[in-house]
Amino acid sequence: MSTLPPCPQCASEYTYEDGLLLVCPECAHEWNPSALASESASGPVYKDSVGNILQDGDSITVIKDLKVKGSSLVVKIGTRVKNIRLVEGDHDIDCKIDGIGAMKLKSEFVKKI
């Protein structure tokens, strides 16, 4: 019996090997176990919507209109944000947007400048 690790996304124990990748049949998540081990050792890696690696202090552009929860304000597409700070959690970017104030954004809705 093999001892493959559980799926990092849904924790399913029914993972299987497909070449160099491991695959979860329940959620269809594919991952490289050696890349996952090196990532956990160095901390999380944050990427923008096109795969560029983000770092603290980067400048980004918003790629779609985002409604501000609890307000009638909208962060418009193309809004530039300077000097971001990366944090762990669902919304992984802390920033300050002119005209709106302090915000938390998801990295999937931004593009590095």
> Which value, in Å, is the CA radius of gyration?
18 Å
Number of strands: 11
**Percent helix among the residues?**
under 10%
Secondary-structure element order, as H and E? EEEHEEEEEEEE
Number of helices: 1
Helix-strand makeup class: mainly beta
Q: pLDDT average, as an integer?
A: 89
Domain Protein YjdM N-terminal: 3-32
InterPro entries: YjdM, YjdM_C, YjdM_N
Family: Belongs to the YjdM family.
Pfam families: YjdM, Zn_Ribbon_YjdM
Detailed description of the structure:
The model has no long low-confidence stretch (mean pLDDT 89). A hairpin with a 6-residue loop joins strand 8 and strand 9. This protein is mainly β and 113 residues long. The strands form 4 sheets. It has a 3-stranded antiparallel beta sheet. A 3-stranded antiparallel beta sheet has the order 7-4-11, with no helix packed on it. Strands 8-9-10 form a 3-stranded antiparallel beta sheet, with no helix packed on it. The longest helix is centred in the first third of the chain and has 10 residues, at 33-42. It has one helix at 33-42; strands at 16-18, 21-23, 30-31, 60-62, 66-67, 74-75, 80-81, 85-86, 93-97, 101-105, 110-112. Helix content is 9%, strand content 28%.
